[in-house]
Amino acid sequence: MEEFASDLEKTELGKVQIAPEVLEVIAGMAAAEVEGVASMSGGFVGEIAERLGRKNIARGVRVEVGSREAAVDVSIIVKYGHRIPDVARDIQESVRNGIESMTGLSVVEVNVHIVDVELKAEEKAPPAAAVEEYQRVR
Fold this sequence. Notes:
The chain has 3 helices and 6 strands. By secondary structure, the chain is α+β, with helices and mostly antiparallel strands. The strands form 2 sheets. Strands 3, 4, 5 and 6 form a 4-stranded mixed beta sheet that branches.
C-alpha cells in the first residue's frame, strides 16, 4: 500500500479524500485512551518537538492508506504492572474500531510496538524539617 489520500467517495459534487495524517490522529487518540498506555513514543525527534511546545497527537503512529484499506503501526510506552499482551490487544481493537467507524476504511492490520515500560514514580521524600534561620552577621 502507498501513502496517499484515499478516495472514499465520489459524488456529483466531487470526491472525498482522507489524508494519512488524519488517520494518524484518530489512531493516536484511540491508542492513548487504552488503560495501561503511559504515552505514545515518537522517537527522538518527536520528543524534542514536544519539549519545544509542539503537541503532536499522532506521535508514535504511522499509517499506510490505500483506496479502501489502511495499515497502522503504533509505538507506545506501557505503564508498569499492566499485562503487555492485553494492552496491545486493546490498542489493536481500539484503533481498528476508531478508524473504521470514522472513515469507513477497512483496517487490515494494527502493529503495536512496545518501546519502553514506565516505572512507578518513586515516592518523594517528605520535606526536611525547616532549618531555623539565624543571622550569620550582626
